[in-house]
Each structure stands twice: as C-alpha cells, then as structure tokens.
C-alpha cells in the first residue's frame, strides 16, 4: 500500500481487517502524515517498512485494542514512534475514562509522541524516562493493560511491566514466529495465563494476551 495514498483508499484497506470508524481513520491518517514528516529527520520506523506503513504498523497496532476491547487505561512501554501506543490512544478517543501512558526514554521520540497526541487530539501522556524508573515511581493511578511491540524478550517484558501487572493489569505483546520459544523460556521463571490470537497481518505471528503474571520463586 502506498503510505501517501488517498484517505478513502486507506480507510477501505483498514476496514479489511476490522471495524474502524471514519473519525478514527481520519486521526490515523493525520498521525501517519506527521510520522512521515518527522521520519525525514528521525528514524521512527525502519525505512524499509515505510511503503507498507499502514499494514505493517497501523493495522498491526490496531490489534492491541482489538485484543482487549474493554481496557481503557493503558501503559505502552518503549513507545518509540508510537506503535502501538498512539494508535491505541486514537482508537480510544472519546471513550469515557480512556487514557494511554506512553513510556519512552529517547527525548526526541518523546517529543514526537507529545506532538502526535496534540495533533490527533488523543487522550494520552508521555513519560520521558527509562521504563524501570517510571514504573517504580508510578503515581498516575490504576492501569488496565500494558502493551509493547518489538521491544524485548518475554521474560524481560514481564520484568519491566511487573509493577503494573502485580497490581492486576493484563498485558498484550506482539510477537513474531519465534513466539513459542519465548513463551517456553519465560515459563521457567514466570507463571501466567495466556491466550494466543493469530495476527491478522502475519499468520505466523501472534498477539499474546497475558494475565495473572507472577514471578516464580527463585
């Protein structure tokens, strides 16, 4: 798909994968336009994925809220260019109590994320700092769910999001074709309940939904 394609074409393509309102598509288009503008100066996404940004990044990120449609308050760790955090905030725009907290240590990327939230009018807060530090000193209220995409192995993700999951938050992680090995390795040091959902973008990838994540005694 052409990243700069017309809005109607883009909307039709997104609708192939799930129910997305016209208002949401409008905001997604504004976000993609902004990202491509900033991409010229910052490496927000891999350059090779720019031509397929709508499927590789936007639709892939839409699966986060599709996986947990009842979650309203999210923490997105290692947000980078905003996938899936900004997309989640866009989807939740206008829903009572909705808010997405984006944690990003890179100051330039954090600046982009703030600009993106303002541009699309989505409910979110950017926390510029290391995930461990922000999570340890968390004072922004209860969290329903944690998300991450292309960030770290599962065992490390569990460690990073433990302050939230310990308080009852669920987790949604995007994982590629090696997901089964990561799940098996993580199960040695963590116990959890898992639901797997096949990715609509890549049948060999999975959306992994975790709950009741607890570190095993050492």
Walk me through this protein's architecture.
The termini are far apart. With 218 residues, this protein is α/β, with parallel strands linked by helices. α5 links the parallel β2 and β3. A seven-stranded mixed beta sheet has the order 3-2-1-4-5-7-6. The protein has a single domain, classed as 3-Layer(aba) Sandwich (Rossmann fold), CATH 3.40.50. α2 runs antiparallel to α4. The protein is built from eight helices and seven strands.
Fill in the keyword field for this structure.
218 residues, alpha/beta, Rossmann fold, 7-stranded mixed sheet, disordered N terminus
What is the CATH topology classification name?
Rossmann fold
> What does the average pLDDT come to?
92
* Approximate shape: globular
Order of helices and strands: HHHEHEHEHEHEHEE
**Helix count, per DSSP?**
8
Kindly state the percentage of residues in helix: 40-55%
In short:
By secondary structure, the chain is an alpha/beta fold. 41% of the residues lie in helices and 21% in strands. It has a single domain (55-215), classed as Vaccinia Virus protein VP39 (Rossmann fold, 3-Layer(aba) Sandwich), CATH 3.40.50.150.
């Amino acid at each position: 798909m052409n990243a700069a394609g017309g809005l109607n074409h883009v909307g039709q393509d997104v609708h192939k994968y799930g129910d997305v309102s016209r208002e949401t598509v409008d905001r997604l288009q504004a976000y993609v336009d902004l990202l491509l503008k900033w991409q010229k100066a910052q490496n927000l996404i891999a350059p090779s994925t720019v031509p397929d940004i709508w499927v590789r990044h936007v639709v892939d990120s839409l699966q986060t809220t599709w996986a947990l449609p009842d979650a309203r308050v999210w923490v997105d760790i290692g947000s980078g260019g905003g996938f899936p955090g900004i997309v989640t905030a866009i989807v939740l725009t206008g829903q009572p109590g909705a808010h997405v907290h984006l944690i990003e240590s890179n100051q330039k990327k954090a600046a982009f994320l703030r600009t993106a939230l303002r541009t699309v009018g989505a409910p979110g807060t950017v926390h510029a700092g290391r995930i461990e530090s922000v999570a340890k000193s968390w004072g922004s209220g209860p969290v329903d769910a944690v998300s991450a995409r292309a960030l770290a192995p599962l065992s490390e993700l569990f460690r990073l999001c433990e302050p939230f999951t310990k308080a009852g938050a669920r987790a949604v992680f995007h994982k590629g074709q090696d997901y089964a090995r990561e799940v098996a390795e993580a199960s040695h040091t963590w116990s959890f309940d898992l639901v797997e959902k096949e990715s609509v973008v890549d049948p060999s990838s999975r959306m992994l939904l975790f709950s009741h994540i607890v570190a095993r005694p050492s």
